[in-house]
Design a protein that fits this description.
heterodimer; A: alpha+beta; Rossmann fold; OB fold (Dihydrolipoamide Acetyltransferase, E2P); 2 domains; 6-stranded mixed β-sheet; 8 helices; 20 strands; elongated; B: mainly alpha; MetI-like fold; 78% helix; globular
Chain lengths: 362, 255
């Protein structure tokens, strides 16, 4: 990882007496693909706009490439943005759109044309230079917006939910292309999205935000497998939550009571006896057995309420005897036994010991 | 049902256009009085162009219309831009006040302007007429231009900034070309409004600066002369062309 290219130091920003970014400090490193992830209104876009220079901060410092940039106007920053609405200039051709930044800088025409061609090739739109913007599809407009930004060879490329207007298939393609583009250009990408799948598949690092604060920063695997708190656990991926209580601790292990069943789980956070906890389990971590087979491990009991066939997986909705509903996912593989269940079939639910995430119940 | 719909529309359009058609037909009538038809002729058009007083008034009218519409367009476009770019307290009531002047009766505007000019000690003539025409054209320009720019994606301006454009470059390369059709439409609207205004002009012009609508008005008081029919026909055709042009300007290049 390179040196810090953007640093937020105690940055606060509000609109109309409402704090949108609340005393955030964050380092972003040169060359990484960083995603700001969070629900709408969490402050992620405001963070991006502060890097772009389109928004100023009320308190703190935004440092770009070692320079305190609070008062540097957007036009003078070595940063370019791909906007959510693409924001292409409707009265210009594709070529004029892409050349806009370079021609403002007064570069010679031959150089501009060469670079525009290069950028067009990079986004797989070679030969589209003379087209009018209105004649392009949404996906093509998206590519022009990317080309218009990268042609300026910025230090940092900012992407503000650029895939949200595309259809599902195109979105998946673009994810891959953006990753490839990132690798090719070697510059820092800062990507804003509310789509956790996008964040997980594309990023080197994810910053999960909520209510103007950072909830967790980490690699996708870390965020998914070891969420720092209930918000992150709930926001990223699907989760089943069980309320429980610690009944005994023993080094790295502890005994807990979940749904009136005694279980043994890992103690990673120094939980103490009688502490209220929440156990988080991903649907794919659940182990389902037929009650008619003898369930050996400690388990919860329930009945299959719904079976959803998804091609490569079978998802179950199970109603526990306590009335709680949980979701499970089972994958097809050669040695798996039959993973189809009859409706209302009684099942035992457990999980592979150590795969659970235990969080204090605040 | 379809028949009913069609005949209803036909009635509406007959109602709107029969008076104008009558005027146009009679402008070719060889008879001196409008009551009888004595065959087609172009002599009233020829006579019209020989009438120096009318021609002078026409030149005056066009001078006022061209200058006032240009001034109104320049001020109005910048005004609309201010409403679009800046958020300030009282922005909405101020914009509503633009509509108020647009809707206020001409007679009110005419009298208030003449009062003002008298207080200021301005001599009634070209200058006062110009000021008055700029005043009543201004809101139309603001509304036309603002209607178009308020539909723009504001991110376009952010994008221009992001790519290195300063305020002037944003205006020159982004806002101006994008609003150009509306600016042109606003100008055409001002031009036609100025050209055919009677009431406000009646109050604010002086005896030595005669303009076409007032000249026609005074001529008609002694009975409708056939050359007035010819003149009105020409003005109608001109207006029609302007409206068509304005329509295409606004329509074209929109997304």
């Amino acid at each position: 990882m390179g040196k810090q290219i953007v640093s937020f130091k105690g940055v606060t920003k509000g609109f109309d007496n409402q704090t949108v970014v609340d005393n955030i400090s964050l380092d972003i490193y040169g060359g990484e693909f960083l995603t700001l992830l969070g629900p709408s209104g969490c402050g992620k876009t405001t963070m991006l706009r502060m890097i772009a220079g389109l928004e100023s901060c009320d308190e703190g410092q935004v440092i770009i490439n070692g320079v305190v940039s609070n008062d540097i106007p957007a036009a003078e920053r070595d940063v370019n943005t791909v906007f959510q609405s693409y924001a292409l200039f409707p009265h210009m051709t594709v070529l004029q759109n892409i050349a806009f930044g370079l021609s403002l800088k007064g570069r010679p025409e031959a150089e501009i044309l060469e670079k525009v061609e290069e950028a067009l090739a990079m986004v797989k739109l070679a030969g589209f230079g003379e087209r009018r913007i209105q004649r392009l599809s949404g996906g093509q407009q998206q590519r022009v917006a990317i080309a218009r930004a990268i042609v300026n060879e910025p230090l940092i490329l900012l992407l503000d939910e650029p895939l949200s207007a595309l259809d599902h298939k195109l979105r998946k393609e673009m994810r891959l292309e953006l990753r490839q583009l990132h690798r090719k250009l070697g510059i820092t990408f800062i990507f804003v999205t509310h789509d956790q799948e996008e964040a997980l598949t594309m990023s080197d690092r994810i910053v999960v935000m909520n209510n103007g604060k950072i909830e967790q920063t980490g690699e996708p695997k870390e965020i998914y497998e070891e969420p720092a708190n209930l918000f992150v656990a709930d926001f990223i991926g699907e989760s089943n939550f069980f309320d429980g209580r610690v009944t005994g601790t023993d080094g790295h292990w502890m005994d807990i009571l979940v749904e009136d069943v005694a279980m043994t789980v890992r103690n990673r956070r120094g939980f103490f006896v009688n502490q209220d906890i929440r156990v988080l389990l991903r649907p794919e971590d659940m182990v389902i057995q037929r009650a008619s087979d003898d369930c050996d491990q400690p388990h919860l009991k329930g009945r299959v309420e719904e079976l959803i066939y998804k091609g490569n997986t079978v998802d179950l909705v199970i109603r526990l005897n306590s009335g709680k509903r949980i979701a499970t996912t089972e994958f097809f593989n050669e040695d798996a036994e039959e993973i189809f269940y009859a409706q209302n079939e009684a099942v035992c639910i457990s999980w592979i010991q150590g795969w659970e995430v235990v969080l204090p119940n605040e | 049902m379809a028949l009913l719909k069609r005949s209803y529309l036909t009635l509406v359009y007959l109602f709107l256009y029969i008076p104008i058609l009558v005027l146009i037909v009679y402008s070719f009538n060889a008879a001196k009085y409008a009551t009888v038809w004595k065959g087609a002729t172009l002599k009233w058009y020829a006579k019209l162009f020989e009438n120096e007083m009318l021609m002078d008034a026409m030149v005056n009218s066009i001078t006022v219309a061209v200058t006032s519409s240009i001034v109104a367009t320049a001020i109005g476009t910048l005004g609309a831009l201010a409403f679009y770019r800046y958020r300030f307290t009282g922005r909405k009531p101020l914009y509503a006040m633009v509509y108020t002047t647009m809707m206020s009766p001409d007679i009110v505007m005419g009298i208030s302007l003449v009062c003002l000019f008298v207080i200021l000690g301005l001599k009634l003539g070209f200058i006062t007429l110009l000021l008055a025409h700029v005043t009543f054209c201004l809101p139309f320009v603001i509304v036309t231009v603002y209607a178009r720019i308020s539909g723009f994606d504001p991110a376009v301006i952010d994008a221009a900034k992001d790519l290195g454009a300063g305020e002037f470059q944003i205006f020159r390369h982004i806002i101006l070309p994008m609003t150009a059709p509306a600016v042109a439409a606003g100008w055409l609207l001002s031009f036609t409004l100025s050209l055919d205004d009677v009431i406000v002009s009646f109050f604010v012009t002086g005896p030595e600066f005669e303009i076409l609508p007032l000249k026609i008005y005074s001529m008609v008081r002694l009975g409708v002369k056939p050359e007035v029919n010819a003149l009105c026909t020409l003005m109608f055709i001109f207006t029609l062309l302007s409206v068509i042009a304005a329509h295409y300007l606004v329509k074209e290049k929109t997304k």
